Amino acid sequence: MTEQRKTSGARWLSKTVLGFGVASLLSDAGHEAGTAALPALLLTMGTAPAALGLIEGIADGVVCFAKIFGGSLANRPTLRKPLAVLGYAMTGLSIGLFAISTSWLHILATRILGWMFRGLRSPSRSAMLADAVPKETLGRAIGFHRMMDTVGAIIGPLLAALLLSRVTLRSVFWIAMIPGVLAAVAFAVLIPGQVSTSRQPPPSLLTAARTLPSPFRRFLIAVASFGIGDFARTLLVLRASEQLSLHSTPASGAATAILLLSLHHAVAAACAFPVGYLADRMSPRKLLAVGYVLGVVTALLAALAQPVLWFHVLLFVVAGMVIGIEETLEGVLCAKLVPSTLRGSAYGLLAATNGIGDMIASATVGLVWSSFGPTLAFSLAASACAIGTLLLLVLVPEEDTPPT
Prior knowledge:
The protein is 81% helix and 0% strand. It is mainly α and 404 residues long. It has one domain (16-189, 203-395): Up-down Bundle (Growth Hormone, Chain: A), CATH 1.20.1250.
């Protein structure tokens, strides 16, 4: 039994899986550095929370449609690697374009460009990773990938905070572009391409959507409901920046908020692999429900936020746990509910569903915040997350416990 477990462990932690992790770490380090500095850039333009909410919401809407199309393309194994490399490269280059933006509309256009290519690459990368490991170790592989991805997200805000003390705000975005471009190089060098083993043509987007299993379609309903309350974390950065600036300078409040975002990502990274490991041994659905409940708690804490540091530390820690659990286990459930031949479309639809929810959540929270205040805005988000949790438990069937 011991020898069998060692062999199983060696199979999932391969050079290829490590390559996925390195590429994601570099990419997230770049775009999270840019994202962390984005609220500060918007504040220099005098924009309101509504502008940030609209930027994040519209960009998420664009990325969701890109993921649907990218999912259809990902059903063709020979296209997966080229799509992933192109997506990483363009996402990295788009970060540098923030440096020449002169209005929030320019920032919106740049965000749309980068997130469109991010959406195109996502289903291909996810399908390649799911095919690279045995099903019984899928949770560990996806958890490891999410951990590496989130380590990059930890590095990004720390890099932004360091650079803000040494270079101009706009120079931060030029420097943040570099690791994003290196991510494309890493993926091209470390990840082998795939060949099609089937003589049948891949199914079209509509055909694949119709043939996806019923449990997966019900799963998407729960994901969509939760996503409507799952707002962009940049809104938490803005909330912390405003509140913490009440007892200090705006620059100090913004810097502290960026460091809190790094804490958020550190918690998410710390959760990802243990949660994936548990998902190989118990019900991923129940574990995901715990993450969804924490999503409700996150929104409620944001609604009741106080201008003291310890409260925001708690808020960002809980929010990080949500991301670590949600992103890992939604990917695991998708792979378990869908056959390999349809995983491209399934991951595309899952990502698009999340994108639509994020679009609605971010835009709604931003607009309600500007019109009626943050308490109502985040309370509405908490209600949507609670409904999604209930639907997950009611609509999605219980998973058989995977083999140990």
